[in-house]
Amino acid sequence: MKGRTICPKCNHEFVFELQDDEKKHDIICPKCSKKFTIKPKPSKTGLDKECSWEEHGEPRKTVLSKIKPRTKMPMIAAILLIFIFIIGITTAFFSETFIVSTSDIESQIGLSGSIEILVKDFENNSLENALIIINDINKYTNNKGLLSLDDVKLGIISLEVSLQGYKDKTAEILVTPFVTTKSTIKLEEGSGESEKTDFDTIGCSFVLIIFTVFALIAFIACLKRQHFDVAIAGSLLSIFSFGFFFVCSILSIITFIIILKSREEFKNGKKGKIF
Q: Which pLDDT does position 39 carry in this prediction?
């Protein structure tokens, strides 16, 4: 049984254990160590209410997030991203067709490119007055072996380079808008023709595949409704997968907007839902 008393010295009130069969109790005050004797007597509040504790201060307030219904927006984004992945991979395998179709669209809206062609021999000597035929137009290199030309048709074009005392050389280059295409062509001494140098589309395919993979990663994030930052980054980077007629770029921008609007439906790994 528990009892409650007040120290006669320091007026400290405290609770202690007491035996039922004892009539007197020797008590030591826990505050001032005063020793005194007490006789137990029933409390006015009843034996079943020996003592009680009271919590001071205001009640705690808990702020709970409002539960919002799940929408289909992350699933729509996931469907668009898988389409981007399929189209992007297809584009990568047919990269030359992609380059031609893209260049035609850019040319139709009035875009053109610039080129700088440097002609040298195999001893790295610049070759002056080398004839370069570009789109059936004859041009010559200057005294530094350099030819600069603006307003060039976009896409993969062939350059036919010739100079007396050297073998004729045919090479392909890719002309793009906004960036000057620079190329160095080396001529071999002798007569006849050198082996043709084709434009390497493998590098273009490799770059397209890399950016297409980001769309696949974002697709998984949207499907699981997790890792909002991964979904956003993947949709942005997949813009550069381009696709035929820039389909992938357009779909990636739409997907990015959808993911932004549904950000509260994503869970950030172990951190829980984003609010």
A: 73
